[in-house]
Amino acid sequence: MKVYFHTRRQADLPADTDWLTPGETNVLRGLKFPKRRQDWLLGRWTAKSALQRLSRVQRSLSDWQIAAAEDGAPIISFCGNSSEFHLSLSHSNGHSLCVLVLDTPRVGCDLERIEERSRTFEETFFTASELKLLEQHPSNRRAGLVTLIWSAKESVLKALRKGLKADTRRISIHSVTPEQPGHWSAFEAMDKHGGDSFHGWWRIREDMVLTVASDCHMDQPTAL
Q: Rounded to 5 degrees, what angle do the CA atoms 210, 211, 216 make?
């Protein structure tokens, strides 16, 4: 399965909002907090930029609409019609990530800044096998691995259309391939509630971990 990804920064966001649809403009007006507004705008702009690049349709960005389904997952329409693309969005610390696929709606992505997290965090959100995995790696790389496991869980939960409303310990991350600087590495995951296996990719760009997960086997994500 082909997977495409696109990243943008807050600093690249246009000053105007002419690229929004009327429906999106109404949603924006309902967002009261500045950070929430900026994150929402960055996610929509990243997704529309990715869609325009992948579809090669030379039309206005306002012809694409990114709405939210009842469960909160993003859905795409083009000029009022349902799109053949499926996507997942994530944003963190002024960066955004969009992943697009054609073959399956069960795809999720996440973007997280690498930072130190407490032992309490690990014991609250990680499974026993993930804690064991942490102990098998050098302590100076612990922050990166903790961030990777957390991000991979979020990607799988998005693919399940659950998000962080679900217990993160229902997802177990394993078989993590070592980092290949500048490239994607693989990981495997299991949904202990449904029994489904998920396949994923991860990489580090600057100080951010990017992850993508699906219940289908995926090629390494391709940049747009």
A: 150
What residues contact 158, with CB distance under 8 A and at least 6 apart? 73, 88, 90, 107, 108, 109, 110, 213
DSSP assignments along 58-97, one per residue: -S-GGGEEEEE-TTS-EEEEETTEE-S-EEEEEEETTEEE
The pLDDT value recorded for residue 55 is: 87
Q: Are 201 and 220 in contact (CB under 8 A)?
A: yes
DSSP 3-state of 21: coil
How far apart are the C-alpha atoms of 106 and 116, rounded to whole Å? 30
What distance in Å separates the CA atoms of residue 155 and residue 199, rounded to the nearest whole number?
Answer: 10
DSSP 8-state symbol, 176: P
What's this model's pTM, rounded to 2 decimal places? 0.95
Residue owning tokens 């050098």? 138
Give tens-digit pLDDT for 90-99.
Answer: 999 999 999 9
